[in-house]
Design goal:
single chain; Metal Binding Protein, Guanine Nucleotide Exchange Factor, Chain A; six-stranded antiparallel beta sheet; three-stranded antiparallel beta sheet; 15% helix; EC 1.8.4.12; oxidoreductase
């Protein structure tokens, strides 16, 4: 289980190495992503709160990166945080997410990125439920939910 001290360590020193990397040019990303996905994933945008696909969805399944298909979160870690965006308590694996400091918008936050393709997912905060205390606040546009009964590739 990841805790806030782990997130800070990764952001400051080094993130876990992914098993593989996906690299594309920005033009290639534009060809495979919708305009809304591109704005969030590649331009670090934020979708409107409460008016997004997974804010109020709690069906069983696995959430993958909309850009590269990397498994990011399991629905068992999703909870209602009243933040306006899908919220999770833990990533699917220790190496699924890459963390970096984000000082944009006059705030100090920890940005959550896909560790495989470096796409922006959202942010992680230390105000989540126990035992881990983490709240991954993630844009729906950065996710694709696979039904629980589907096999992963």
């Amino acid at each position: 289980m990841l805790r806030w001290k782990d997130i800070l360590y990764y952001a400051k020193y080094s993130n876990p190495e992914p098993l593989h990397k996906v690299e594309k040019t920005e033009e290639e990303w534009r060809q495979v992503l919708t305009p809304a996905q591109y704005a969030v994933l590649r331009e670090k945008g934020t979708e409107p709160p409460y008016r997004n696909a997974y804010c109020r969805t709690y069906e069983p399944g696995t959430y993958t990166c909309a850009a590269c298909g990397q498994v990011l979160f399991n629905s068992t870690e999703k909870y209602h945080a009243i933040s306006g965006w899908p919220s999770f308590t833990q990533p699917a694996s220790r190496g699924a997410i890459r963390y970096t400091f984000d000082d944009s918008h006059h705030m100090q936050r920890i940005e959550a990125l896909c560790n495989v393709c470096d796409s922006h997912l959202g942010h992680v905060f230390n105000d989540g439920p126990q035992p881990g205390g983490l709240r991954y606040c993630i844009n729906s546009a950065s996710l694709i939910r696979l039904d629980a009964d589907l096999e992963l590739p």
